[in-house]
Write a structure and sequence with these properties.
The protein contains no helices and 31 strands. The strands form 9 sheets. Strands 20, 21, 22, 23 and 24 form a 5-stranded antiparallel beta sheet that branches. A 4-stranded antiparallel beta sheet has the order 1-31-30-29, with no helix packed on it. By secondary structure, the chain is mostly beta strands.
Length: 309
Amino acid sequence: MTLTLDVVATGLGFPEGPVIMNDGALLFVDIEKQTLSRLCPSGEVDVVASLGGGPNGVAIGPDGAAYVCNNGAAYGFVQMPYGGKTVTVPSPERPDFHGGCIQRVDLETGAVSVLYDACNGKKLLAPDDIVFDASGGFWFTETGIQDDDTLQKGGVYYCTTDGTSITKVATIDMANGIGLSPDGKVVYVADTIFGRLWALDIVGPGQVKPGPMPGMPGRVIQTLPGYQWVDSLKVEADGKICVGTIFNGGITVFDPDGTTEHVTVPDLFTTNLCFGGADMRDVWITASSSGTIYKARWPRAGLPMAFTA
């Protein structure tokens, strides 16, 4: 598959978490600039809120507010030469890291509040990506913290929007992208450094079926060959899972049967995408290391999100 990519925004820091709005604007976070912004149909970029830390993933809740996974400045950024250009990439240095949280942003006023920053008394590490189910609860991932010699594992959580209930559902080494199957019975999770896509079978709100062996959070859909990392994801209406792919820059489309297809995007850190338009075939892609957002036409329809604003 080859896409015709149109640049709709450039000169950004490290964009992520694209969400299409009802008026055609694109909501997104900028991890480097620590903001939630709106790309207007006119091409202008307006800052909705300054979030601090490292805003990483966004979803619209049932109340029309934006819910943000903030990684708490889990990594810094450095510039490096790549492909004849200078690109911005995450750095393992984290001098300002203070632990992450889930934030709620009122899109009308820009007011920001912290909904969760701990689970059962344990501080959240680095929340990353988020998806709402039809009942109004949300699943989110945290990537954990990785150093040269240690790994604090990440995981999958389930929460309510009233700030009273957060449950750790599963442990996954570096849980990143998260999405739900069209029937709402499976939650898919991208495990970044292993290039792996997990499928966790849902048996109740915030409950999943144990994996087939100890230490396995669910079923393995596929593990990519070579040195490919997987990032955030969205799901197509037909059930295919589209995952931002790092180093082998682009989108990897996973079929639930394990077969894959790679769609090239000219960016080392192709981190995320979202679907929209009347037929749900318009796609916006965050090409993060070049500070660019592309728009293209996808060959199939994306799955609508549970809530929009």
